[in-house]
Amino acid sequence: NLCSTEETKQVLRLSLTEFSLPKFYLLFGISKVKSAAVIAFRSSYRDRSFSPGSYERETFALTSLETVTEALLEIMEACMRDIPTCKWLDQWTELAQKFAFQYNPSLQPRALVVFGCISKRVSHGQIKQIIRILSKGLESCLKGPDNYNSQVLIEATVIALTKLQPLLNK
Length: 170
What we know:
Layout: H1 6-19, H2 36-40, H3 62-80, H4 88-100, H5 108-118, H6 124-143, H7 148-164
Helix pairs in contact: 1-3, 3-5, 4-5, 5-7, 6-7
């Protein structure tokens, strides 16, 4: 049994209850349904009207990602207390950092937010890289103010820097 203490089980129960509430569907980008199970278990075989293009995709706000990441981090840390040799957080941080510093208009902003939320330490070099990304986003915005990807990248770097700043040495 991975999560054996009563305290950990309570955290898991509360989290499951919290994420089962309709008001939290928006955090996962599925607010236009009455039940998350409708989306999660819908199949094109049973419901012929469903196809990847037949519903309007909702945008996934970076602030929602921040909230979801912090909730998942809380769950992970609760379970890690019961597993002394657990490296889940280190692996997650490593993956988030890899994608945060690699240009990809879809993944990079999300990875920056996750990296900012889950990091327990940060180097000046990492902060410098994030500031370079911010600079490139601002430069791109100046060239064309309607550039949505640049605006998202700027928002992501600000969220990441806000989360990471307290971890820096004075």
